[in-house]
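Researcher: Please predict.
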Amino acid sequence: MIHGVDVSSYQSENYPVAGQDFAFVKVTEGMSYTNPKWVAQRDRARGAGLVVGYYHYVTPGSMSAQGSRFLGKIALRAGDVLALDWEHTGVSCVDEDRWLDHVRAKAPGHRVVLYCNRDFWFHRDTTSRAGDGLWIADPDHAAGRPGVRHPWVFHQYAISGGLDRNVGRFASRAELRSWARREAQAAPA
């Protein structure tokens, strides 16, 4: 397994990158909020050679408008990963699937994953669709052992040092980079 973090405006632009292989950066939320630190946070990850992911916190409303707004903020590079942060109780599973479909269609060269916690996965999800992979938030289980049977790609397992800690189901950063660039067609087993 490899290690990573996810950051938003709550974290510094100079978050620790030592020992990390990837970083997910919050870019947008709904139709009006943009993380004012996202460019500096992205540059921090890129400067350290990490695989970079971006995420959008979805709110009720038009999924295509939110997906397009999110993509419009980012100058995507090959190997960047895109994620939907599905935590708002007003967003249905149908809408979550619509956002994933829209972003996958608009950014076909990029992996698009679903981030949610176990409660959403078990009690709100009705399709088990997670785009190119499930990023599951489960701090109740050890790193790399989330309490879900569905194949997962990333596991957010803890908060420490003011950062959300994650593991990726990859043998190395190079394997993640290859998957992110769509050089491998299936998620890791």
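Model: The two ends are 12 Å apart (CA to CA).
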